[in-house]
Write a structure and sequence with these properties.
The model has no long low-confidence stretch (mean pLDDT 92). Helix content is 20%, strand content 34%. It has a 5-stranded mixed β-sheet, with helices on one face. It is built from 1 helix and 5 strands. The chain has one domain. The longest helix is centred in the middle third of the chain and has 15 residues. By secondary structure, the chain is of the alpha+beta class.
Length: 74
Amino acid sequence: MPKANIETYNDGGEWKSRREGSTRAFATGGTKAEQQAQGRAAAKRDGVEHVIKNLDGRIGQKNSYGNDDSPPRG
């Protein structure tokens, strides 16, 4: 079973990181940059994608640390 991607997002003014599909965050608080670092470390450790959302909830950035389904060409 593949591991879940990591998501860094804002919930009610607080930055959090969680595994996609989970209702509970594994890390909360601090700045967006601090939560991005927590999420990036977890994504690298698990070999999955790190999805970083903006304040409005839309995806702002994605970083892949595992097997990329669509690697760059060239």
